[in-house]
Amino acid sequence: TRETVEDVILSKRRFQYEEEIRENPLNYDAWFDYIRLEEAKGKKERIREVYERAISNKPPVQEKRFWKRYVFLWINYAVFEELDAKDIERARMVWRACLQNIPHKVFTFAKVWLMAARFEVRQCSLKAARQLLGTALGKCPKEKLFKGYIELEFRLAEIDRCRKIYEKYLEFMPENCQAWKKYGELEATLQEHERARAIFEMAVNQEVLDMPEMLWKAYVDFEIRLKQFDRVRELYRRLLKRTKHVRVWISFAQFETSINDVKRARGVFEEANDYFKSGSEEDSAASLKEERVMLVETWLEFETNRGSNKTVQKVKGMLPRRVRNKRLIKAEDGSDAYWEEYYDYIFPDEDQKQQTNFKLLEMARKWKTQQKMEED
Question: For the residues of 335-349, what is the DSSP string, one character each?
């Protein structure tokens, strides 16, 4: 009969998987296939037996990459007990046993902690969920754990708890701009503007930050949303004391444009151009030239949209011409390797300077020739 044929096939596949795991008990893919086979059959005790045998084969090496598949066995086991077997206490035991097996002092799996906590939330046991996540942060604090814990408390509308976790988070990772940004945005969402501003102030004054540009932008955007335009200008001035990057200048000018203050925007472009113009005379000429090109092109776009024919022509006159040059590339031992072609930008003011220098050299040459003739 059909059932007999299916039983024969099932027996053969079981035998095949038993052979595979006898040869290599750490072949977790074989265990997964074996478990799927038993789950398709649907006998709970048989499924549990295979899960128990599988999780008894702990990786012999304490390296995370060898544990990933093993940990997924535990996760699947816990999910099976909760959703298929409907045995909540047994599912809780599986989660606890899984966490006990992981060597948290060497590495941890934030996913397991968070899934175990969410399991407790589904059982309406918030105290147990918080105890789990508190233990996790005490044993092995990780960014993913902090984020997951904050998300949990935020969904429960426990704002004070969110604040406390953010404080621990930032105590653990004070250089994390994303954490500072999210904390400030949380307070802004709650209309706690003074608290949000204080958080952003603390953030930008940290000695080390991993993504300061993102943090400053978040602070600026916060003040723009509140229409605190003088504060925005003050922030840009503070930022320009730290970095004169062209994108900061352009962002400053675009802010002034966005509030229809064309005069101030033009003033920012002029100030930036003066900086790059004087800076290009220094050793960093090559790096500043490209930034100056970007600035003038953005300025021209601004004048085209907001200026007059006169201002457009003025900025057009500042555009550089592109020339092809060659430079000698040195080998590692200091010898000449080859000549490389590259494009350079020559601004009109540089042309004038070169012409002036050429005239001075010409005058000096004439004077020297005249002196020589008088001596003769």
Answer: SEEEEEEEEEEE-HH
DSSP string of 277-338, one letter each residue: HHHTTSTTHHHHHHHHHHHHHHHHHHHHHHS-HHHHHHHHTTPPEEEEEEEEEEPTTSSEEE
Tokens 């994390």 belong to residue: 176
Name the nearest CA neighbour of 158 among 117, 186, 178.
186
In the chain, beta strands by DSSP E: 321-330, 336-346
37 burial type by CB count under 10 A (0-12 exposed, 13-18 middle, 19+ buried): middle
Is the distance from CB of 265 to CB of 306 less than 8 angstroms?
A: yes
Contact (CB, 8 A) for 275 and 295: no
Handedness of CA 351, 353, 354, 360 (dihedral sign): positive
The answer to whether the Cα torsion of 311, 316, 317, 320 is positive or negative is positive
What is the token pair recorded at 24?
Answer: 């290599």
Give 72 or 327, the one with higher predicted confidence.
72
Nearest to 266 by CA among 213, 226, 206, 306: 306
Q: How confident is residue 333, by pLDDT bands cut at 50, 70 and 90?
A: confident
Say if CB 102 and CB 116 are below 8 A apart: no
Q: Taken in order 182, 188, 190, 196, is the CA torsion positive or negative?
A: positive
Closest CA to 344 of 319, 356, 326: 326
* pTM of the entire predicted model: 0.79
What's the Cα-to-Cα distance from 363 to each of 353, 360, 376, rounded to whole Å? 15, 5, 20
Look at residue 220 in the predicted model and tell me its pLDDT. 97
- Selection from 147, 138, 140, 137 nearest residue 176 by Cα: 147
Asked if residues 206 and 181 have their Cβ atoms less than 8 Å apart, the reply is no
